[in-house]
Design goal:
Blueprint (H helix, E strand, L loop, with lengths): L1 H13 L3 H4 L3 H9 L6 H4 L2 H4 L1 H8 L6 E5 L7 H8 L4 E5 L3 H8 L8 E2 L6 E3 L6 E3 L9 E7 L7 H14 E12 L17 H10 L3 E6 L24 E7 L4
Helix pairs in contact: 3-7
Length: about 250
């Protein structure tokens, strides 16, 4: 597995512009990707999730103050924490019970800071979809906020609460990166799409919260996902079409 991972990283970085090749965090990320704390299952998803390219697109750097939302069991946390340990800071917030257990048994994640932020999340009766009350992270001057495949778990009102809290926490000019499973544009809710979300809607909601739309990427475009089936179905699981969006808090 080690040779496969290093070969994939080398090939990826060869495709980056010369300035990006010199970025100090690339070597740190390569080391984190090949770390013994990564399970074989986590490493097997590199080709699909493309973390180096995703972080490059989002404008990540190892000297940033970064907040990762809904970190789960730490697929991205295990990459971000080691890279940010020396020069930056990593905060984790929202549904952090599982990641706290991972941090407790993983010394490499000791610098990650779990925020004591627990807004009420109310089930809508639809599996995996929640409302989220207005809240604050009680942070300011963050450089970057990241959320990977979580926006679909919130109602539009819940995402509005989240976007407002993120906007408040970022410094002027700070960045907000959003990756999620794509839903067909304007498709109404149904039994197969509750874990998908319309990227146009996500852009609109971010603009409503005051963000500027910076860019989109086709890094996670998948031609063989017809946007028809629930993301957990065998035919698309692990190979869903995902949108990758970047927003910015206005500098003024």
């Amino acid at each position: 597995m080690r040779k496969i991972v290093l070969f994939a990283i080398a090939g990826l970085l060869a495709l980056q512009p010369a300035a990006a090749e010199d970025a100090p965090w690339h070597g740190k990320l390569a080391a984190a990707m090949d770390s013994p704390m990564r399970t074989d299952a986590e490493q097997a998803r590199y080709a699909n999730r493309r973390p180096a390219e995703t972080l490059e697109f989002i404008g990540f750097s190892d000297d940033m103050r970064v907040l990762e939302l809904f970190p789960g069991t730490g697929w991205y946390t295990k990459l971000l924490a080691p890279v940010l340990a020396e020069r930056g800071e990593l905060y984790l917030a929202l549904s952090t019970n599982r990641i706290q257990d991972v941090i407790a048994r993983t010394p490499e994640l000791a610098t990650a800071q779990v925020l004591d932020v627990n807004p009420l999340m109310t089930s809508t009766g639809i599996r995996g979809v929640f409302d989220l009350e207005p809240f604050s992270f009680w942070l300011e001057d963050l450089d970057l906020v990241l959320t990977f495949r979580n926006a679909h778990n919130l109602t539009p009102a819940g995402r509005a609460s989240l976007n407002e809290a993120v906007f408040e926490a970022l410094r002027p000019g700070g960045l907000y990166g959003v990756v999620d499973h794509s839903r067909r544009h304007m498709e109404p809710d149904g039994p197969e799409n509750s874990r998908r979300v319309d990227p146009v809607r996500i852009i609109h909601e971010a603009l409503q919260a005051g963000f500027e739309f910076v860019a989109w990427s086709d890094l996670h475009y998948r031609a063989d996902d017809a946007l028809r089936y629930e993301v957990g179905r065998r035919s698309v699981r692990g190979n869903t079409d995902r949108f990758t969006l970047l927003f910015r808090k206005p500098a003024d």
